[in-house]
Amino acid sequence: MIDLIHVTKRFGAATAVDDISLSVARGELCVLVGTSGCGKSTTLRMINRLIEHSEGEIHIEGQQIRAFRQETLRRRMGYAIQSTGLFPHWTVARNIGLVPRLLKWPAAKIQARVEELMALLGLAMEEFAGKYPHQLSGGQAQRVGVARALAADPDILLMDEPFGALDPITRESLQEELRELQARLHKTIVFVTHDMDEALRLADHLVVMHQGRIVQQGRPLELLREPADGFVESLLGGEDRGLKEAALLPVSQRMLPLGPRRLARERIGQQASLREALSVMLWRHSERLTVVDDDDMPVGELSLRRLVGARSDD
Amino acid sequence: MIEWRRWAVPLGWLALLLAATLGMGQLDGLFRWIEADSRQVIYARADFLTLLGRHLLVVSVAAVLAILVGVGAAIAATRAWGRDFLPLVSQLASIGQTFPPVAVLALAVPVLGFGTLPIIVALFLYGLLPIVRNTLAGLEGIDPGVMEAARGMGMSGGQILHQVELPLAAPVILAGIRTSVTINIATAAIGATVGASNLGDPIISGIVNGNTAYVVQGALMIGLLAISVDSLFSRLPLTGSR
């Protein structure tokens, strides 16, 4: 869907992005992660030509992005940024309807689309449609920003640290919402962040960048298990890697069928992560948990030995 | 009701201005007290309504020109293709204001002759700076995130200018126009020295003939006009003021 082929960007003598190649498959959520100044934002902004690449080729669905007019290209891609960039003199509804208006949709269709998106992002129409951006909280403004990016139903969504300025609780709930949205909409998303937890939580495809180059890319678990070098390892949290990996694995993957023993008192949902299971064990001073399904029916059990991945359970 | 109240203050000043224009003749007694020795105490070479009309005309023409050129130049200097001219534009506007209007008149009269034209040129140059400076400040002051989003969403340069930049910069631009016009209402009086008849006439004539009453009448009219216009500007609805 999106292909970067030996792409380089120079600003004068400085090389911001150095010969990177990257493919993002349709429906995939690709996260570019790295420290400040590693070129991840530059890479993102080259895709919608806010920055023109110096060398190499960038393709969208097999076509060079330079074959499109800039405006046409950008209207095909949603774009959400950290500062939201909502127009302060426009209402929420008008902000969301921006790209459909640029594409000259009929008014009734725009109205219907705005209502649909506000419902999708959990913004009550009566409450928010007429509000101005300065009347919104950070989380609400970012929801509006995402709704605006989705307005013309683009296949591609570019997100530049969209949740970076939010408090941790709002950030986590928006990450969760993005995952749910993505499960329903199957957009091709390129997401930039410097927050490794966010990257691991969201990514199908994780790309670690450092000094303008891609140091490693692959599925989050692959990177956790086999970091290419010390930099990737430290970015992944060094000693914390075990917990980060545990956060990516569901309880259902390690649980054993219910045995003859009495059910353990403490319970954990089968969709919960191993990290949460470990936390429950630590908190309750318990070495065994009963795994339950969504209806709270026991379906298996999880022991500490099993959780930490020891070969067999005795 | 609320709409009416919004305009009450400017309307009050306008009423006072109108009363002074039409009723100056009735104040004969008052001005005779200021200027007891003169035979005539109310300026009568032209009626005040005509002088007011000419004054307004000169200031308006200069203002329209200054707005067109000033806002236009500031917009051009903030486009990608005009960035190189940004320092030049702001310097030229500064020079326009440091150049005293009297000097402009002195230089313009030999070229343009006596009358209204030289004073329009002088006021235009003098009024340019506040407009250019504020338009630049307004456009440059827009949140970079808003500009980035506007471009990233696929708005064209013209769409960004009309739908985003100008509405958001409008309050600052209007403040510049307000300063420019108010200053020029006062400055226009010197036009009387080169034969542009306006509310400066009574003042110049009063100075020449030693008639304080004339000076007071001209100054009163100009003051009321400036306050009325300033007050009108302060009540203008601003879409971008949020």
UniProtKB/TrEMBL annotation, chain A:
SUPFAM superfamilies given in the database record: CBS-domain pair, P-loop containing nucleoside triphosphate hydrolases
Instruction: Report the InterPro entries cross-referenced here.
Output: AAA+_ATPase, ABC_transporter-like_ATP-bd, ABC_transporter-like_CS, CBS_dom, CBS_dom_sf, P-loop_NTPase
Q: What are the residue boundaries of the CBS domain, all occurrences included? A: 255-314
Any one GO molecular-function label of the UniProt entry? ATP binding
Name the keywords, alphabetized: ATP-binding, CBS domain, Nucleotide-binding, Transport
Q: Does the keyword Transport apply?
A: yes
Give the superkingdom in one word. Answer: Bacteria
**Nucleotide-binding listed as a keyword:** yes
What residues does the ABC transporter domain cover? 2-236
Return any one Pfam family short name.
ABC_tran
- Similarity comment: Belongs to the ABC transporter superfamily.
Q: What is this protein called?
A: ABC transporter ATP-binding protein
UniProtKB/TrEMBL annotation, chain B:
Gene3D superfamilies (alphabetical) = MetI-like (1.10.3720.10)
Places the protein is found: Cell membrane
Which UniProt key words apply to this protein?
A: Membrane, Transmembrane, Transmembrane helix, Transport
Give the membrane topology, semicolon-separated if more than one: Multi-pass membrane protein
Q: Which residues form the ABC transmembrane type-1 domain?
A: 52-233
CDD domains (UniProt xref): TM_PBP2
Q: Which superkingdom does the taxonomy of this entry point to?
A: Bacteria
Family the UniProt entry places it in: Belongs to the binding-protein-dependent transport system permease family.
The entry's protein name is ABC transporter permease
